[in-house]
């Protein structure tokens, strides 16, 4: 029989007059049917947040882990010490990329609903995090993304058709249909293969950055995860290694408030900020308005300069909101208040950048509409081209033996045998003349 | 050859393999708990940091997920990392990085990224290590798609196989039988340990050579029964077989995956009998896979049921470890039985 620790005797009182222990199970503030009100979120004034030098010791800038880096006020004016003062052309390019990303997301979401693929994940409302941060680092820097950073690929001009081919697992998919849609891989664009297991890319990014530093390279690494997966051990392994070796890496935590149906409280968000995870590791931390593209740009630029000058890693919490479901397999109306996205006080990143450009006199509604239409057309045309190469579930698009290739560099005997078995099965089913469609 | 051959124990041979590779290829890095200045708790990396520098051979936090995870990233950068996990019993916190990341990176990225990593780790019992310093997790490794599993049984093989593992472009788990680091083990824990210097395989070339992965070695030729073993158990099996005067053929598998199935098939078809010996727990152990393969390929040549001699399905006990260990009595009993059948 297992032995148990001494029990409290029935009917007896505790040794003191303390109330009995109670277990806290976090609960989000709003559920379906509630009217959300985020009026009590502390939003410091744009000018209120100081900008320390890139070499500042982490202990001298801890307050930034609890504040909020902002550049755009809610009237679209860029202000304060963090203002990156980007030229209008750069701003327009940023806007264009975000609009294209949203058009791409909308189109691919619909494609999934039309049964053309199994799965999709939109980044609606979070476009600034991936797009603006990518524009603030060098194209040769290596990104270790999570699953909602398609904006990085678009910002680096990765061909849309290749993304679509991957989503459709079609003949053009260079990953040979092996990966779930959106698990891209693009080494020539500095984009590491997306895993699907959460936060595993965090220590990998640190390893890449350590390798770069040990070779006297100039390139840095960036890693991405959500606030939910910051609870994974890999996250903490990564921060430990990064601080130990002063690795040139930027850790991005996209705090979009929701991990499928679990709110940020299940990752510890009720107690402190996610940027504050940096404090315990002795690394720099910044908490940034993730719906403010210029703030994201500025924070990333700061962290990249810091990393590139051997001043070590930075953790950036992008405070944002997941405006839509986790994925096409998710229905957020089952667990959160329908109005949350609209009530979110930081607005929409595309609308905010547009407002800023218009305020500068560098953009107008007419151009915006024309661009939206142009990009929608671009996505639509590209989609048609991609679909010519096949869609998921309508025929098999890869030669069967590709299933067994690349498990190892050279195929060992047991895989050759299994491959032969599978080919015989398929020949029995489809006949000897079958070719990939 | 004789001029540059030195008598080495297994630790020295493993050290020499890393030394040679650190010297030949500036992409090779060695990392792990206590491997740097101190040179490893088993001394496998002694002197390497001093010789090759701190950024090539360095200590890590006590964090196996991190050790294997950063090694995956280093591999993606273009390095050839050789992480050490201090005991195989500690590999479990790093298993997700091994199973879901290192092993599948080439496949999932269709060759965009590879993971040329060699995870070295001491395994097996017989050193009073208790249940957390004695385990043999090789069948967990062979069950992962995309990882090679190598287990040497002597200094010469250890060096040649480790060099081949480091040069391999796929992740390799290199399991080092720590009971035989300092000398081959007879299986008689109450007899004096014989040093490697009395064993022919302790003559190790000081320079570069490789033993290709996936090739078994015939340790002893025989006609009556094929004994499949690896690591420590090769030596234990040989002692008992020599004592019994049994006409047994011993195959030292050396690489469990990819397995040298041709050597196994040829030997079992010749002898008609097969005894499998490993120290790991029995159920779902690698012996089960070997028994199935032999049955599938050699059934009509078999004259007796395939036998397994293994550790028991219990955690590795501390004080009773010799009752757990598949030693002389267990092996002799199984051998007598299979030869009688």
Automatic annotation (TrEMBL), chain A:
- From the UniProt record, which GO molecular function terms apply? branched-chain 2-oxo acid dehydrogenase activity
Coiled-coil regions listed in the entry:
353-385
Source organism superkingdom: Bacteria
Catalyses: N(6)-[(R)-lipoyl]-L-lysyl-[protein] + 3-methyl-2-oxobutanoate + H(+) = N(6)-[(R)-S(8)-2-methylpropanoyldihydrolipoyl]-L-lysyl-[protein] + CO2
User: Needs which cofactor?
Assistant: thiamine diphosphate
Provide the alphabetized UniProt keywords: Coiled coil, Oxidoreductase, Thiamine pyrophosphate
**Biased composition annotated in UniProt, kind: Basic and acidic residues:** 1-11
Annotated Dehydrogenase E1 component domain ranges read 96-388
**Region Disordered, annotated ranges:** 1-40
Per the UniProt entry, what are the Gene Ontology biological process annotations, in alphabetical order? branched-chain amino acid catabolic process
Domain named 2-oxoisovalerate dehydrogenase E1 alpha subunit N-terminal is located at 19-59
Q: State which Enzyme Commission number(s) the record gives.
A: 1.2.4.4
Q: Which family does it belong to?
A: Belongs to the BCKDHA family.
Q: So what does this one do?
A: The branched-chain alpha-keto dehydrogenase complex catalyzes the overall conversion of alpha-keto acids to acyl-CoA and CO(2). It contains multiple copies of three enzymatic components: branched-chain alpha-keto acid decarboxylase (E1), lipoamide acyltransferase (E2) and lipoamide dehydrogenase (E3).
- Note the PANTHER family from the entry: 2-OXOISOVALERATE DEHYDROGENASE SUBUNIT ALPHA, MITOCHONDRIAL
**Designated name of the protein:** 2-oxoisovalerate dehydrogenase subunit alpha
Write down the species. Answer: Sphingopyxis flava
From TrEMBL, chain B:
- As recorded in UniProt, its EC number(s) are 1.2.4.4
KW Oxidoreductase (keyword) present? yes
Q: Which GO terms describe its biological process?
A: branched-chain amino acid catabolic process; response to nutrient
Q: What class of enzyme is it?
A: oxidoreductase
The record's keywords, sorted A to Z, are:
Oxidoreductase
Keyword Oxidoreductase in annotation: yes
Query: Domain Transketolase-like pyrimidine-binding: where?
Result: 8-183
Q: Which domain of life is it from?
A: Bacteria
Please provide, alphabetically and separated by semicolons, the GO molecular function terms listed in this UniProt record.
branched-chain 2-oxo acid dehydrogenase activity
Which coenzyme or cofactor does it need? Answer: thiamine diphosphate
Which Pfam families does the record cross-reference, listed alphabetically?
Transket_pyr, Transketolase_C
Task: Report the PANTHER family cross-referenced here.
Answer: 2-OXOISOVALERATE DEHYDROGENASE SUBUNIT BETA, MITOCHONDRIAL, 2-OXOISOVALERATE DEHYDROGENASE SUBUNIT BETA-RELATED
Protein name per UniProt: 3-methyl-2-oxobutanoate dehydrogenase (2-methylpropanoyl-transferring)
Species per Swiss-Prot/TrEMBL record? Sphingopyxis flava
